[in-house]
Design a protein that fits this description.
This protein is mainly α. Helix content is about 80%, strand content about 0%. The chain has a single domain (about 45-230, about 240-440), classed as MFS general substrate transporter like domains (Growth Hormone, Chain: A), CATH 1.20.1250.20. The longest helix has about 35 residues, at about 405-440. The chain starts with a helix and ends with a helix.
Length: about 450
């Protein structure tokens, strides 16, 4: 009996080795996929997994979607409530939103890893709704900065990293597609919120138009809170900062590239309406709707490249999109017609959408342990947040809306985005070398 059992065990060992070898070969073909143990592999489907995409979608509506909406507020403030402030000063409000959204991930990533997903959602949702309601009451610059820049930014920061990290525990083979579908929520938010705001301000005034956004935010975030579920249990040992990441060239180069890209990529979102008014003779309505058009086009830019990325690898899909964004930003300088600006808005919206939707997928793939993915994503995006913080105010200082001079801001945005694309290429090259060393 004992001999027979040993024989069965010996017979099973080669089969087990063959399965593991096949799994390793399969994973190696995915150039940026983290490799969790076989028993911890995400389901890559099922009702609960798809429900997380639904939940994350509404979180992105109210985080990046609100950040993408700020272009509408920028135009309104420049011509109304804050017309005594410079475009650069006004853009600091939106830049602070975007900065805190990413930078707070430095803390929320480890908090998510520690198991406090629902707490983060509750705090973040409250701050976003509270910030919108307080913005509706604000009449001074500092009040708007505190409510719209600080409160909403902090709230969005509590929500963004968890919304990405929770998806990474449910999907591997279709991870980029899952993140892309959820990230399309940022475009939907950036499409719906500015239109609602623009249409309601003349009818009910700025305060109630902003409160309406707050009510929409409250309802959609409540759906996310009810439906989101954590799959991976918290690790016994938690990290506030993963020092091993500093020794990994692919991760550090990609983080640097993200910093440069986020410094320049949102400049058209903030200033395209002002450009249309000064350079193409567009009506107020036509100039305003360029921002929703940018966001509408980015819906497809957040989904289609991500579907491709599951086949080619997220880094491979992101690289050409980053270069195309830079080239389009340079071409913006020579556009002086409404038709040309419309085409630019559609193309730029599509390719810039990948910067938000593919970056998290890349970072998840560059995180070797799925239990600490929140820490890694938070670290990288906190640095990228510095790019958003300085990018748009610098562009605002470089342009002169009164005289219609935009070229210096345009060159700055295009060049810094190109620098980011080059760093992402360097990250891809470094990843190949890193993988070869690990295999050796």
């Amino acid at each position: 009996m004992s001999t027979g059992s040993l024989t069965d065990q010996d017979r099973k060992e080669p089969e087990k080795s063959a399965v593991e070898e096949k799994r390793r070969d399969s994973i190696e073909n995915q150039d940026d996929a983290a490799v969790p143990p076989l028993q911890d592999r995400p389901p890559d489907g099922g009702f609960v997994a798809w429900l997380q995409i639904f939940s994350s979608f509404f979180i992105l509506v109210n985080t990046w979607g609100i950040v993408n909406t700020y272009g509408a507020f920028q135009t309104y403030y420049e011509t109304g409530l804050l017309n005594n402030k410079s475009p650069s000063a006004i853009s600091w409000i939106g830049s602070m939103q975007g900065f805190l959204l990413l930078f707070v991930g430095f803390l929320t990533g480890p908090i998510f890893d520690a198991g406090y997903l629902k707490t983060l959602l509750l705090v973040g949702s409250f701050l976003i709704v509270f910030g919108l309601m307080m913005t509706s009451l604000a009449t001074e610059y500092y009040q708007i900065f505190l409510a719209q820049g600080i409160a909403i930014g902090l709230g969005a920061g509590c929500l963004f990293v968890p919304s990405v990290a929770v998806l990474s525990t449910y999907f591997v083979k279709r991870r980029a597609m899952a993140i892309g579908l959820s990230a399309s929520g940022s475009s939907v938010g950036g499409l719906i919120y500015p239109i609602v705001f623009h249409r309601l301000v003349p009818q009910v005034g700025f305060p109630w138009a902003t409160r309406t956004l707050g009510f929409i935010s409250f309802g959609t975030l409540a759906i996310s809170y009810i439906t989101i579920r954590r799959r991976v249990s918290p690790p016994a040992k938690r990290k506030l900062f993963d020092w091993t990441a500093l020794r990994e060239a692919p991760f550090m180069l990609f983080t640097l590239g993200n910093f440069f890209v986020f410094t320049g990529v949102y400049i058209p979102f903030y200033f395209i309406s002002a450009y249309a008014l000064k350079k193409t003779g567009a009506s107020d309505d036509r100039a305003f709707y360029l921002v929703p058009i940018l966001n509408a086009a980015s819906i497809f830019g957040r989904i289609i490249p991500n579907i491709i990325a599951d086949k080619t690898g997220s880094l491979n899909a992101l690289i050409p999109c980053a270069f195309i964004c830079s080239i389009l930003a340079y071409s913006w300088i020579s556009i002086h017609t409404n038709g040309g600006l419309l085409v630019f808005a559609i193309l730029y919206g599509f390719f810039s959408g990948t910067m938000v939707s593919l970056s998290p997928s890349v970072l998840v793939g560059l995180s070797p342990d799925p239990k600490f993915v929140g820490t890694r994503v938070g670290m990288s995006f906190s640095i990228a947040g510095l790019g958003i913080l300085i990018g748009n105010p610098v562009a605002g200082a470089l342009l002169n809306i009164g005289e219609g001079k935009f070229v210096h801001a345009q060159v700055f945005g295009a060049t810094i985005t190109m620098a980011g694309a080059i760093c992402i290429v360097a990250s891809r090259v470094a990843k190949v070398g890193y993988s070869l060393r690990v295999k050796a």
